[in-house]
Each structure stands twice: as structure tokens, then as C-alpha cells.
Amino acid sequence: MNLHEYQSKRIFAKYGIPIPNGEVATTPTQVRDIAVRLGKPVVVKSQVLVGGRGKAGGIKVAQTPADAEVKAEAILGMNIKGLTVKKVLVDEAADIATEIYLGAVLDRGRRRVVLMASSEGGVEIEQVARDTPEKIVSVAVHPFLGLRDHQARNLADGIGLPRAHTTEFMRIAKALYTTYMASDASLAEINPLVITGDGRLVAVDGKIAVDDSALFRHPNIAEMRDPDEENAAEQEAHRFGLSYINLDGEIGCMVNGAGLAMATMDIIKYYGGDPANFLDIGGGAQSDKVAAALRIILAEKRVKAVLINIFGGITRCDEVARGILQAIDTLTVRVPFVVRLVGTNEEEGRRILAEANLITATSLADAAQKAVAASQSGAESRGQSKEQHA
Amino acid sequence: MSILVGKDTRLVVQGITGREGLFHTQQMVEYGTNVVAGVTPGKGGEWALDTIPVFDTVSEAVEALDANTSIIYVPARGAADAIIEAADAGIALVICITEGVPALDMVQVRAYLDTTNTRLIGPNCPGLITPGQAKVGIMPGHIHIPGNVGLVSRSGTLTYEVVYALTARGIGQSTAIGIGGDPIIGTTFLDVLQLFEADEETEHVVFIGEIGGTDEQKAAEYIKSEMKKPVTAFIAGQTAPPGRRMGHAGAIISGGEGTAAEKMEALAAAGAKVARHPDEIAQLVAASFGRG
């Protein structure tokens, strides 16, 4: 789960990382009032969960409260990469002398939390890693020891930080590690960490991503989820515990297991089709979950055929079959279904579906080819069904 | 002899009285796995399925019945503790089925296990099976037949799919193992490849990777420099859009690292046969056994 900039910075502040004075607003009038209270030039920053807000015109500096109101009018309601700006953060403008980068991330290879620093602040760290990898220094933290003084000092020295700032930088690095561990983060980064004209270090921008699996022990963070950042289908999938990602093809997919779901998309592509989505119903799904999955898939107008591929282990094919029937009964099904059920209770599952008049398949290759064919002849089969009704 | 589990396995089930734990214990017993004990704190002295004694702690199960392998079905918030308890009791092989274990819990667990002789498989994995000898996991046992192909995969159902296709062609398996899709896992591809390379029963290895991370590339280096046995590989997620998470936490592509194309290239360059889609895996294996 990704947190907004303002949410992330509030958490940073809680662990002793200096952030600029600022407040969140949803209307231009509020923005003006905040600017009056701050009594200084401000930065009006759109709060949407995408990168490149600045380039898109979603971050503007304002010298006066009136100016801030005008800038806010332009930014609120703006569309940035498909997301509408509903909130802005109004921060005191920092007097920036130097920008650096400081981040914490889980390194799968080293199986440790790694702290990274770079003299190239204000740029995406991925870009620095591509262009000038020698400008990134990192230290891996042993979980039983925590971030040691010498490691934090090595980061400061490694990016050529002037000695005058070393002590404060070390304090902030340790606070960032504490933030990371205490929030069960998968990423916590300050970018840029600014050295101001008067020699202070301030986290001007930053973000935290939290491990979804650990949200159970952070109810206060779980509450910060912004429903505006998910589309309707993703919200419904979330509610039913389905893993769903919308793509741009025409063949809807319902599969159990993430690996098999990806492999099913791959084989559709191999036979000349395009998957409309990734959808993993997980292990042991009951019929109502299956019906919800199909409802989500069919809500997408682009879908011309649906491929259901279930390899029963924990998941029982008869439960899946009942869910398919439930969906067919309650929804207007306008596209052909190709169904492949293998594994636990497969015979019972096939028997339940026998009268539903669906296209069945035995192997995965067979299922994929039938789904691709069905999606391409979609117009004809709709014509046929009209004749039948007439 | 295959790898890790077999006739010598003496299994203790942690979380045996839970719904999942009990159901899969029954399945494992029916398959012929030697399940010697169960553990559920507070239920010591009870019996599971009328024949399996339940203990309060893993060490009691080890003392009383010489358990040497543990399988964990406890809920995510207790999983890290269950793994550490098993290691402290001297269990040599721990399989954690539990899904949704917090990543930072696993960072601690891994660092702790490095100080012990315990091997962990998982978490968030289907377990492993040596057909005809022992099933220690949640996979459907009946799709497997004994033979000489070793399988290793991050995924559950995709592995079943490939096993099913192999069995349909009469090609049996030495051991099939799912290492789990989480970012921090106990046993990696590389570890399993080394075990298969050393195993007399295994003649051919099937390797099923996914997008995200660099474990497959590390395995490819080993295949190139050390492995003599033939390897057939597949990488799931060739059509996945960059930067989106596909269920498994591990399946994230970021900054051009860990794409299917990169991994397939690395494996092909290492001399593995690389399947373009899952049904092709069994075809390639059959061809190399002269049954294509």
C-alpha cells in the first residue's frame, strides 16, 4: 500500500525527521488561508500516487496567499496520469542549497533492509542507478543490530557530505531506519533531503510504501488507504480478496494462483490473443468469490471472451462450477466462456456445468486456442444468439 | 532417494487442529506420508484424526517421536514464531505453507536460521512431494508419479499444471518442490538446483521461474558453470506490464530488472531449453527423453 506524500511526511516527523511546516487542503480558499498562516512563500503540491507530478504541472511555488489560491485552482481537479487531484499539500517553500537522496528498501538478494544515499537528490533513484550508479552508496542493516553509527557515517562520507552536517545526517538516517521498521515499510525514501541556506536538513519530499501483509498490525496506517486511488473494479476485487489488474486486451481471465494466472496470460498471447486482465482468485475460493470475479471481468466492455482456468488443489472445482452458474444466472452474459477444470473434484465440477452449454477444454493450450477463436468470432456468435431468441 | 523428503521423513504438523492443518494432514496421511505428531499450543494431550498425538510444543514432539521435518499451517501473524520454534527444537527441515507473512518478520527469521542447521522452505509455498514416498504440502498427490524429473518452482498451481502434463506423457518425477513467491524465502532456486544436481534419482530438471527479482539469473549462472544435468525452463509473466504487482510479492518488475525476457535470455545462454508457454515444457522434456 502506497502512502501519499503528506501521510509519509507526517510519519517521518513522528520519528524525528524534520519536515517543512505545511497543511493539506481540498479547496483554493483553504490553500490561501494556509498560506496566510504560514506567512511565507509556499509550494502547492498535488497529492496523487504517481511519479512525475512536477513535470505534469502538479507542483507550483507561490509567493503570496493570493498567488497560492490561483495556483491551487489550476492544480485541484487536474488529471495526472489518469488520476484526478483532490487534495494538495501546502508547504513552506524551502531555501534549497543542496539536494540529496536517502532511502530504505528491502533487498531480496541480500535479505536485508538496505539504506541508500546519493548526492543526486531530487531525481528518481532508478534513473541515478541507470545513469551514474557510482553516485549511490548503500549499507545493509543486520536485523539484530540495527543501523550502526559507522554505517550511517559511511553513507554521509560516501556521498561527500560536508562534515558540518554529518551528525544531523546520521541522526536522520537512523530515524529513517526506525520509521521503516516501525511501519513495516517496503520502501521509505526522502527525496530530496534538502540542506537549507542556513544549514538545516529538511525532508522536503518523500514516500512510504507499506507491506500489505503487515497491515493487520498497523490499523492506523490501514485507515490511510485512499479509495480515490483505485478504480471501481479494483475496489470490488479488493473487497472480495481477489488479486486483479486491468489490462487492455479482449480475453478476460479467471485463474487460481498468481503463477498460473501469468502463464495463462502468456499462452493467450502466444496463440495470438490479448488478455484483458490478470485475476487470481487465490486458494480455496468459494462460489460467491468466483461469481464476484466473473462480475468484475464482465463489467469491462472490451471483453469478448472469458477463459476460466482452474487447477484444483485447495480450490475445489465443484465450488468454482457453482460460482460460474451463480454468475450466469445473475448477470447478462454476452460473451462466450471457455472453461477448463482440472484437479480436486473435477468430475463433480464438470457435471454441474454440463447443462450450461459452455465451451470446455482439456489442456491449457486447447483452452487458450478456443478462447482466442471465440474472441475473434464474437460478432458471429452474438448474431447467432439473436437468431435463437427470434 | 530424491531430495529432502521421502521414506525417512517423520513429520510434525504445526497448527494441526486448525481447519487447513487438519484437512491437509488427512490428505498427507492418505498419501502415505509418515505424520508422527501435531502441535497446537494449549491442546497437548489431544489426538488428531484419532491416531496422531497432539503436543503443546515442537520440542515435545521431537523428544517423544523423533520428528525430523515440520510443516506449518499456522496463521500469518504466528508463522515467524512457529518457524523459529521448530528450529529451536532441532527440526532439520521446516516447510511453511502460510501465506501473507510480513516481509520484515522473514528478514529476522532468515538471519536467525543462518545461525542454525535448519533449512526452511517457503513461506507462501505449496510444499514438496517425492511421489510414492512422501507428500509434505498441499498439492494434489494423485497427479504425480515416481520418476526422474526434478521440478522447482515459485508457483503452486503452475507446478501442478506442468506435473499433470508430464504424468500424462508417462514421465515421472523425483521430487517436485515449490519454493514460494515471497520476497524473502528460506530456500532459493540455486539451493534446489544444487540438491538436484547431486541427487542420483534426478536425471532432468524443470525450472519454473517468474518475473521480478534476480534469483533466476543467479540460478542461470549455476546452470552454466556447474550443472551437468539437462534443464528445461519457463518464466511466467512474459505479458505482464512493467511496475504492476501480479499477486506474488516477488512478481514485480522495476527499473528493467527481472523481466521475463531478461530471465529467458539468461537461461537460454546457460544452455537450458526455454519453453515459450507452459504446455511446451512437457513437450521439451519428452523430446529430451526421446518420447517427443
The gist of it:
Helix content of chain A is 38%, strand content 25%. With 390 residues, chain A is an alpha+beta fold. In chain A, helix 5 (149-158) crosses helix 6.
Based on CA inertia axes, which overall geometry of chain B fits?
globular
Put simply, the count of helices of chain A is 14
Distance between the terminal alpha carbons of chain A, to the nearest Å? 51 Å
Report the strand count of chain A: 18
> Measured on Cα atoms, how large is the radius of gyration of chain B?
19 Å
> What is the strand content of chain A?
15-25%
What is the H level of CATH, i.e. the homologous superfamily of the largest domain in chain B? Succinyl-CoA synthetase domains
Detail the poorly predicted runs of chain B.
247-256
* Helix amount of chain B: 25-40%
**Radius of gyration of CA atoms of chain A, rounded to a whole number:** 26 Å
Q: Could you please say which CATH topology of the largest domain in chain B applies here?
A: Rossmann fold
The computed structural class of chain B is alpha/beta
How many domain units of chain B? 2
User: Element order, helices and strands of chain B?
Assistant: EHEEEHEHEHEEEEHEHEHEHEH
Shape descriptor of chain A reads: elongated
What is the total tally of β strands of chain B? 14
User: What's the helical proportion of residues of chain A?
Assistant: 25-40%
Query: How many helices of chain B?
Result: 9
CATH architecture descriptor of the largest domain in chain B: 3-Layer(aba) Sandwich
- Largest sheet entry of chain B: 7 strands, mixed
Mean pLDDT metric of chain B: 92
